[in-house]
Specification:
- It comes from Kribbella soli.
- GO terms for molecular function: metalloexopeptidase activity; zinc ion binding.
- This protein is an alpha/beta fold.
- It has a single domain, classed as 3-Layer(aba) Sandwich (Cytidine Deaminase, domain 2), CATH 3.40.140.
- The strands form two sheets. The protein has a six-stranded mixed beta sheet with strand order 3-2-4-5-6-7.
- Helix 3 links the parallel strand 4 and strand 5.
- The N and C termini lie close together (about 10 Å).
């Protein structure tokens, strides 16, 4: 299950709406081993495409260096689909290289004909390990303090 703060969900959705009709992408980093994403890092879709996303290789190198320096890891890797449902494409599955990450997809397909989309979105999360996709429940909380003591 992905437990994620509402402010982070709002930031991801806002990024997807802002970049629509191109796909948006980014990372939510957290302390190594915590499974709690605390730092929202929107990235540039180097492909600038409505059907594909790609992290800029230089940006990605800087990101992983920074994560390493801060003892963080990518807890959530997100991107948007602008014309299809929030489900990983074959390309998404093939590119998934972080078995411990939650892969979040946001669909802005209801605004496919709209350059500035502000309507409803789908927000779903998956684990992708060795090409195997498993959808997981998303629990949105006001803050991680609400989950203290839960297992």
């Amino acid at each position: 299950m992905l437990v994620i703060e509402k402010a982070t969900v709002d930031a991801i959705v806002a990024h997807a709406r802002r970049d629509h009709p191109d796909e948006a992408c980014g990372v939510v980093a957290g302390a190594e081993g915590s499974d709690r994403g605390t730092r929202f890092i929107p990235m540039l879709n180097a492909a600038m495409s409505p059907t594909f996303y790609e992290f800029d290789s230089g940006d990605l190198l800087r990101l992983y260096k920074e994560l390493d320096e801060r003892d963080e890891e990518p807890v959530v890797i997100y991107h948007s689909h602008t014309a299809t449902e929030a489900y990983p494409s074959r390309t998404d599955i093939n590119l998934a290289q972080e078995p411990g990450a939650h892969y979040v997809l946001v669909s802005t397909r209801d605004g496919a004909d709209s350059p500035a989309y502000d309507g409803p979105v789908e927000f779903r999360s998956y684990r992708i390990v060795d090409g195997e996709v498993t959808e997981e429940e998303v629990r949105v909380v006001g803050s991680y303090a609400e989950t203290e003591g839960e297992h």
